[in-house]
Amino acid sequence: MTKRILLYAALAVGAFVSVFPYLLVLLTAFKTQAQLTSTAPWLPGWPPTGRNVADMLAGDFPRFVLNTAVMTALLTAGQLVFTTFAAYAFARLRFRGRDVLFWLFVATMMVPSAVTMIPLFLIMRELDLVNTWWGLLAPYVLGTPYGIFLMRQFFKGLPAGLEEAARIDGAGPLTILLRVMLPLCRPALGTLAIITVISSWNSFLWPLIITSGDDTKVITVAIATLKDGIGVDYHLMMAGSLIALVPMVAVFVFFQKYIVRSVVLTGLK
């Protein structure tokens, strides 16, 4: 009984630490500027106000939400398509230098993303893609080392007899991938899609570097621009953060079964 009490106490503390930042976002989003200084951060302001959220929705912020949704959808679609093809080639097709090329590609996962930001920006500048959708999407839409590694390991875990039976029936590599392998890869594809959606929606550093206009500005950059040289509009920043948080909460509510499955799958692989 003592061990159970200690276990649940530790879980309760961990849950509180995890949820508390979101509680602060919710409470601060419905406070006025005066209530920010007159009440403790963890206490609600009274009476609560919805003006902060209304002000954010009345401006250009919905446009930035749409930009983020478009970017997330395109990156997720590109990841699923190109990552699947690359992973299948590394897992099942035989060609010279396959394993060496794969491990060299995977080794780039050990390089911090901040290290590659300046070279990527210089490449995009030479291609005249700065502040364009092409420049925003190009570095990640064709797949990532992590996604290719995850899908390759899943492909290698599938029975080889399925492919051999399909070849006997006259199927080629593309037919085998589309009609035999992909239906079996739904758990892995769901995992990759969830990871890509979350990482794309929360992406900040690359959009901050490559974009400068409102046509390509995303949520994270828009929220960061609320901080200027004079001060920080915390109530507006929290209102924007609350708006940005709602889609992710909806994703969790409707796809929590797949999110838990993705955690299990990534842990096993």
TrEMBL record:
Topology of the protein relative to the lipid bilayer: Multi-pass membrane protein
Keyword Cell membrane: yes
Single Gene Ontology BP annotation: transmembrane transport
All copies of domain ABC transmembrane type-1, residue ranges: 65-255
Keywords: Cell membrane, Membrane, Transmembrane, Transmembrane helix, Transport
Membrane-spanning ranges: 7-30, 64-88, 100-124, 136-155, 234-255
A single cellular component GO annotation: plasma membrane
Localization annotation: Cell membrane
One Pfam match: BPD_transp_1
InterPro entries: MetI-like, MetI-like_sf
Family to which the UniProt record says this protein belongs: Belongs to the binding-protein-dependent transport system permease family.
Protein name in UniProt: Sugar ABC transporter permease
